[in-house]
Amino acid sequence: MEPAVLTGEHFLNGDVACAEGALAAGCRFFAGYPITPATEIAEHMSKRLPQVGGVFIQMEDEISAMAAILGASCAGAKSMTATSGPGFSLMMENIGLGITMETPCVLVNVQRAGPSTGLPTLGAQGDMMQARWGSHGHYEIIALAPASPQEIFYQTITAFNLSETYRLPVLIMADEIVGHLSERVIIPDSSKIKLRSRPRPKGRKDRFLPYRPGANGVAPMAHAGEGYMVHFTGLTHDEKGYPVMTAEAQAEMVDRITGKIRKNLDRIIQVERYRLEDAEVALISYGISTRSSLAAVDEAREQGIKAGLLRLLTVWPFPEDMVRELAKRVKGLITVELNLGQIHLEVQRCAEGRAPVVLVGHAGGSVITPEEIVEKIKEQVG
Amino acid sequence: MNGSTSSQKHPLDGLLRTDRIPHIWCPGCGIGTVFSSSLIAIRSTGAEPMKTAVVSGIGCTGRGAGYVNLDSYHTTHGRAIPFATGMKLANPELSVVVFSGDGDLFAIGGNHFIHAARRNMDLTVICVNNLNYGMTGGQAAATTPYLAKTSTTPLGNPEAPFNLPLLAYACGATYIARWTMLHTRDLTQSITEALTRTGFSFIEVLAPCPTGYGRKNKLKASDLLKVYQEKAIVKNGANPAETILDLEQGITLGKFVEYDRPTFAQNYKAVTSD
User: Fold this and answer.
1) Minimal Cβ distance to A72: which of B70, B89, B111
2) A165 lies in which domain range?
């Protein structure tokens, strides 16, 4: 057996750093299907999982990969899959199953430019709304966006911790640029990595109600083989997990699975504020686009313009209150993202007309340059 | 004191979620009989019930997971096998049974069946074949006989059906049997064998759907049972390529295939434990 946490200084691309983050988080089951630019995650897991007593399986498609990680999680394993646009589309139905059965797992989308086959080898951030609403029905999701190999390492651990704490599939919305970018990655000592585990049942097995929530709105999870004789279904169900086909049961279940996220926003949402204290123009960005945004803020400040950046580490749930508050005190907001305006719609919604909101973005295939952003900042204050 | 209520207890009550009865299956439907045989087989293995998990897809048969008092998972349409694959690999001590219908396992889920068989994944797959999609009202399936009438083939089915044992054999399943729900003793025996062996086991069970398939083809449940009785050709060990499922010519039944080869998990362990 090799160590799961490769403590030390490494030079890794984002995909490999993600895989190492998963192992450090305790992931011991990976099911996947090859797809550019996420393949290296599967390749690395295929090499590393047997070294730590885990299992890797290459499935016949992304539909089965998503199904397999849910099954593994129901048997007690921390599980993960990784994909890109076309595969992400195929995973949508079983993301909904994971939401409804409340099954922890992590799904990495190393985004490439779409729609359809698009630009397989070039980055984009075009799946952000799909991440939010891609599976049918009304639900809440958690999605993180990393900007570097180091950050995807940590965010993968965070994603597992959130999925375990709140019992749902958590998405890491990376992109081709972060996935294929090699940089220094420092992996800390395992004692420095805080891990969370799903809440577990206590008390009499015959009285256990698999969907009776605990204090934070999350129900303890019994695994297959433990004697609780649970029933899990994608149908609308009651506390017993039994199907109930009524509007009342639907309201109760959907309120609960959305409520456990909505009531814990402060614990879930993470952002970084950069030079925002006195900012007159605020950039809002996430993932790879934050790197250009940071450079643009510094360049604008050099030119005497008070610019700042709200960097979203968590994109979903969207930090609505922070954007509302920002809109009240700046002259303008600029969304920076590699699409034609997805998170931009959220920024506009939360700005509520208090400040003008403009977009710096394109359809994907190359990074946004700091110069493009600086130009837009100047327009905003001009 | 034994009151009258205790005499009304069904011998399989311990394996049933009795608080979910009555079930949704129609009068004359064959799924219940297959379900009973499966529970009797699970009990007869003597294995601890808590070490058996049942996984279903969507459809009438897929509701089976909701009635069994074991760890049970009612998943998405067609995806019971990959869900079960993840479950089995994460906890190899579990005996994982997939209980689902022909539409679920062989149309929308066909790709997963062939690959799980190829991998010799250690699962027991029980397919109730009622020749159509029952839950949605009797549409054509990948098993509907040529020229049969369904609600989506009102003029007769232009397609040829799968011969499931042959498909399973070609894909590498290591245990293959076909029975009808009339042959409960043989069926229970086959399920018991499948549960106690290692490898990908596939059991097809023909069962009438009087509401869907029967009504469109002017076959009452009893008519179909008569066909099962009269057309059955029990031929254990038959070459799967020579088995037939033809309501007029005959229906080959039996345990056709049983052989050993390493499972996915065994091979994975061998390959990765250097």
Assistant:
1) B89
2) 8-192
A281: burial class by Cβ within 10 Å (0-12, 13-18, 19+)? Answer: buried
pLDDT digits (tens, 9 = 90+) for A99-147: 999 999 999 999 999 999 999 999 999 999 999 999 999 999 999 999 9
Q: How many domains does chain B have?
A: 1
Integer Cα distance of A336 and A291 in angstroms:
10
Q: Which residues of chain A are at the B interface, by a Cβ-Cβ cutoff of 8 Å?
A: 28-29, 31, 50, 55, 57, 59-61, 63-65, 67-77, 79, 93-94, 97, 101, 223-235, 242-243
- A295 and A187 in one domain? no
What percent of chain B is modeled with pLDDT above 90?
A: 95
Domain of B178, CATH number, reads: 3.40.50.970
> B159 to chain A nearest CA, in Å?
26
Q: What's the structural domain count of chain A?
A: 2
Mutation test of the interface with chain B: which of A106, A229, A244, choosing the one with the most B Cβ atoms within 10 A?
A229
> How far is it, in rounded angstroms, from Cα A159 to Cα A162?
5
Q: What is the pLDDT of residues A157-207, one digit of tens each?
A: 999 999 999 999 999 999 999 999 999 999 999 999 999 999 999 989 999
Q: Is residue A299 part of a domain?
A: yes
Write out pLDDT tens, residues B152-208.
999 999 999 999 999 999 999 999 999 999 999 999 999 999 999 999 999 999 999
Is B76 in contact with A234 (Cβ distance < 8 A)?
Answer: yes
**Residue A111 in contact with residue A124, Cβ under 8 Å?**
yes
CB spacing of B74 vs A233 below 8 angstroms: yes
Q: Which residues of A touch B60 (CB under 8 A)?
A: none
Percent of chain A whose pLDDT exceeds 90: 98
Tell me the shortest Cα–Cα distance from B263 to chain A, in angstroms: 13
User: In the predicted model, what is the mean pLDDT of chain A?
Assistant: 98
* Residue after which a domain boundary falls, among A177, A192, A207: A192
In this predicted model, what pLDDT tens digit does every residue of B125-156 receive, in sequence order?
Answer: 999 999 999 999 999 999 999 999 999 999 99
pLDDT given at position B1: 41
Rounded Cα gap, residues A64 and A67, in angstroms: 5
Average pLDDT of span A38-54: 98
CB pairs < 8 Å spanning A and B: 144
In a domain, B270, yes or no: no
Among residues A192, A225, A255, which one ends one of the domains?
A192
Q: What is the pLDDT of residue B274?
A: 67
Residue A214: inside a domain: no
Mutate one of B69, B75, B121, B171 to test the A interface: name it (highest A CB count within 10 A).
B75
Residue B21 contacts A, CB cutoff 8 Å: no
Q: A114 CA to chain B: closest CA distance, Å?
A: 26
- Residue A244, domain member (yes or no): no
Q: Please report where in the chains the tokens 């490439």 appear, as a residue.
A: A112
The answer to whether B104 touches B94, Cβ cutoff 8 Å, is no
Closest CA to B132 of B169, B99, B161, B112: B161
CB pair distance less than 8 Å for B65 and A233: yes
Asked whether residue A183 falls in the same domain as residue A302, the answer is no
